[in-house]
Amino acid sequence: MKELVLVAINAKYIHTNLAVRSLKAQLPDFDVEILEMSINDPLHRIVKLLLDQDTKRIGFSCYIWNMEIVLKLAEVIKKAKPQVQIIFGGPEVSFDGVALLEAHHFCDLIIQGEGEGKLQMLLKNENVDVQNGLGSIPGLCYRHRSGEIIEIPDAPPIPLNQLVFPYLNLNID
User: Fold this and answer.
1) Where does residue 106 rank: exposed (0-12), middle (13-18), buried (19+ CB within 10 A)?
2) Closest by alpha carbon to 75, among 55, 97, 100?
């Protein structure tokens, strides 16, 4: 079983998503897969790809051009596989996580701001139950077991020179 599937829904087929590659590069000790599609792919095809994944978590990279599709996909996945943790991250969800969680109960967790360090902390602390509290991980917004939505203040950004370069494993001329 994979620990995490990172999902990028790009604006065009020819685009690639640096964010999911950067996140995966920071998680070498975990079984992480990237699924990359476009907003032009049929929704049923994307749903099937996601439902076929044997994973604990699905993380969506959220942008203005894909948010409508991401919300539809996340809702379907949560109904079909309620045990799978749904994580949102990216610029479209980093500014008002509380309102997003209030409006969309199928989302379990929002990573606000840069996710490289936060996602690593989340995966390392697998025994931490999202419903019981994640107060030690900055920048998270989640629904507590009591139903209260918790928003942890963010930490200062990570200097880029401390991150693993996401294209190290590619043969680039």
Assistant:
1) middle
2) 100
